[in-house]
Write a structure and sequence with these properties.
- The chain is an alpha+beta fold.
- The protein is built from 10 helices and 17 strands.
- A 7-stranded antiparallel beta sheet has the order 2-6-7-1-5-4-3. Strands 10-9-8-11-12-15 form a 6-stranded mixed beta sheet.
- Helix 5 runs antiparallel to helix 6 and helix 6 crosses helix 9.
């Protein structure tokens, strides 16, 4: 399976300036090509092919005084920007035809230098490399310092350099990784996700909901108030915006770290895991939308999916319409729907007093156990999925090797 490994970059002043030029040139090429395709569409002409676009917006543009500065960056970066535009159009047309899964996509839009995220990609043709000292050597940029947190399982063919809204730089590798090794275990577990507790397990364990966004609310409000008082277009406003972005980045990093630690613990200790397929999009339009986004259920479930696929565990989604909170986990009698404020209830058939969340988790865990033994549980196994970009940490504690070369 393919995994994405992301590491923190620390470019110096000249390297940051070179990266800014590369981001800008890639953006200009993308916008020029998009404008040409839109003009052709309005004129009723066929869309130009990527080869013709490359000749017009890169090769010929470099010879003109108006775009001569495109030659200051690697040509591979510009070519990959055109490929990104072509991929965006392919996804858009596939979405219109219904051949692409997921929500409908809009067509590609123009990029701005004020965007929160900038990215460029180097392929093997650019001759980028990792030095013996552990730096990332990029053409026309130099040797950039990297914080390696672990080994790369195989030699990557491409590297993507990313600058986020908080001004941080990352290098991202997509590599082929073999299956991981974990000792086999027998327990199955059902997980009931919620807001009062982040997760309730079928063994009765309740995981506290950290509420990272709520805890940082006061600091975020102050930073946002300072930003709102700054004059638009001023340097002080840019500094204040950066402080707001960094505050949000700290919240996102803490949430991601919590998700990784919990998902790794669950995968290590259980052979089969089942969760309920929650309607996150619908819940995000209700009065608890802020709490739903703060919990980050979708990101957590995605981590469980790919880690289960990597380490040979079984992962299942229980249908969202399964009455896990209505069925007694002791006698199996369906006792009907109950309002959300009822957290405990007594089964009318067997008289057992049940905790609403634990009862739902037990029912989900029972379905996971039945699925492992190939019985009639209405569950759906998930296919292999890639890792999220933020999987890798950024600690410089160990001394890993990268593609067989010592990183430090």
């Amino acid at each position: 399976m393919q995994l994405r490994y992301s590491f923190r970059l620390y470019p110096n002043g000249p390297q940051r300036a070179a990266l800014a030029r590369a981001f800008g040139c890639a953006r200009v090429v993308f916008n020029d090509a998009l404008r040409i395709r839109e003009d052709a569409h309005r004129a009723g002409k066929p869309h130009p092919k990527i080869g013709d676009l490359s000749k017009q917006v890169i090769t010929e543009a470099k010879r003109s005084p108006r775009r001569s500065w495109l030659g200051e960056v690697s040509a591979v970066v510009l070519q990959q920007s055109l490929r990104d535009l072509d991929t965006a159009y392919s996804n858009f047309f596939a979405s219109l035809k219904g051949t692409r899964k997921g929500p409908k996509l809009a067509g590609p839009s123009f990029k701005s230098r004020k965007d929160n995220r900038h990215a460029i990609r180097f392929t093997a043709n650019a001759r980028w490399s990792i030095t013996t000292g552990g730096d990332l050597r990029l053409p026309k940029i130099g040797d950039v310092r990297v914080k390696w947190s672990r080994r790369l399982p195989s030699t990557p063919s491409t590297v993507t350099v990313i600058k986020d809204a908080a001004g941080r730089y990352f290098c991202s590798f997509v590599v082929d990784a073999g299956p991981g090794t974990l000792p086999p275990t027998t327990p199955e577990v059902g997980i009931d996700l919620g807001l009062g507790h982040f997760a309730v397990l079928s063994d009765g364990t309740k995981v506290h909901n950290p509420r990272f966004l709520r805890r940082a609310g006061k600091r975020l409000r102050r930073a946002q108030q300072v930003l709102s008082r700054k004059e638009k277009g001023s340097r002080n406003r840019d500094k204040a915006r950066l402080k707001v972005a960094r505050a949000h980045a700290r919240v996102a990093d803490a949430r991601r770290e919590f998700h990784h630690q919990l998902s790794t613990k669950l995968i290590s200790e259980h052979q089969a895991i089942a969760v309920e397929d929650l309607a996150v999009r619908g819940l995000a339009r209700t009065r608890v939308a802020k709490s739903v986004h703060d919990a980050g259920w979708s990101a957590f479930v995605a981590m469980l999916e790919y880690k289960a696929a990597k380490y040979g565990r079984s992962f299942y989604r229980i249908g969202r319409f399964e009455p896990t909170s209505q069925v007694c986990s002791v006698c199996g009698v369906k006792d009907g729907p109950k309002p959300l404020h009822i957290r405990e209830w007594t089964c009318r058939a067997c008289g057992t007093t049940l905790d609403r969340d634990i009862n739902a988790a037990v029912n989900i865990g029972r379905a996971a156990g039945l699925a492992v033994t190939a019985c009639r549980a209405q569950v759906r196994p998930e296919p292999l999925v890639p890792a999220q970009r933020g999987e890798a940490g950024t600690h410089r504690d160990g001394q890993p090797t990268v593609a067989g070369i010592p990183a430090l």
